[in-house]
Write a structure and sequence with these properties.
By secondary structure, the protein is α/β, with parallel strands linked by helices. It folds into 2 domains: 17-203 and 241-268, Rossmann fold; 206-239, no CATH class. It has 8 helices and 7 strands. Helix 5 links the parallel strand 5 (150-157) and strand 6 (193-200). The radius of gyration is 18 Å and the shape is globular.
């Protein structure tokens, strides 16, 4: 049940189009699956064309009747994002839901983060939201007038409020995104477009699976190894999160079911959060 994309009724989002950036793997792909399971038409993008094609093949097999569009796109390249927005609208109609999900963490301390690394990290975190938001905002405004609701949800990290010294650049950038989401929510409110985010803790990923494969004690299975990791990280629920658990929160925030929620963040950390 934990891994099932079923969350809302199969027709809950029928007649609505969603866009998911970074949608070819991980939380992005899980979000695409949850949206499709609820009846939405979904456009997804990713930088790696081969990975994107593989994801689409699996999605079409799982959801043969779904309205689905995919296009390679680098969210840091404004013309590429603009082209994706135009192609998505031509294929599926204007979007009423945008999930900004692209981005990854950088492991570094202040001492070993040079100027270029700072610039790269800040650019990635901010413009992976700025470019898609700018490109799709006219569609969202138009759909809000037609459907009564339109929204943006941004995948963010618990690092925004609970920084780690070994991820200094990422933590600082994530804190900035927390502020950006609030600013956009205020600015877009008169147009009826809601903006929210989620704060993700430790979630199963390829990175954690690779660390598991490199474990010293080969007798440990994934459940035991990840439970030990959760204990080390002081996660009260005693496990890592599943991508679909973050995906459900993102889907809720962009859906009409969150129609009176804007400028907010949902904590998806299994109780790991220490902030108020």
């Amino acid at each position: 049940m934990t891994h099932s994309p079923t969350f809302l009724a199969p027709d809950a989002l029928t007649g609505r189009t969603a866009v998911v950036t970074g949608g070819s793997s991980g939380i992005g792909l899980a979000t695409v699956r949850v949206l499709l399971a609820a009846g939405a038409a979904v456009a997804l993008c990713g930088r790696n064309a081969e990975r994107l094609d593989g994801a689409v093949t699996h999605l079409r097999a799982e959801f043969p009747q779904a309205r689905l569009f995919a296009q390679p796109c680098d969210v840091l390249d404004a013309p590429s994002v603009k082209a994706f927005a135009a192609a998505s609208q031509a294929a599926l109609g204007p979007a009423s839901m945008l999930v900004n999900n692209a981005g990854q963490g950088r492991v570094s301390t202040f001492a070993d983060t040079d100027d270029q690394a700072w610039m790269d990290e800040l650019k990635l975190k901010f413009f992976s939201i700025i470019h898609p938001t700018r490109a799709f905002l006219p569609q969202l405004v138009a759909e809000r007038q037609r459907l009564g609701d339109a929204a943006i949800a941004c995948a963010n990290s618990l690092l925004a409020r609970q920084p780690e010294p070994h991820m200094v650049a990422t933590s600082a950038a994530r804190a900035g995104i927390l502020n950006l989401v609030r600013s956009l929510a205020t600015e877009f409110a008169p147009q009826g477009v809601r903006v929210n985010g989620i704060l993700i803790g430790l979630v199963e990923s390829g990175q954690w699976r690779r660390r598991f494969e490199a474990r010293e004690d080969k007798t440990q299975d994934w459940t035991a190894w990840s439970a030990e990791l959760a204990a080390q990280k002081h996660i009260p629920l005693g496990r890592l999160g599943h991508p679909v658990e973050a995906a459900r929160a993102l889907t809720f925030l962009v859906s009409p079911f969150a129609s009176y929620t804007s400028g907010a963040h949902i904590d998806i950390s299994g109780g790991h959060s220490r902030h108020a």
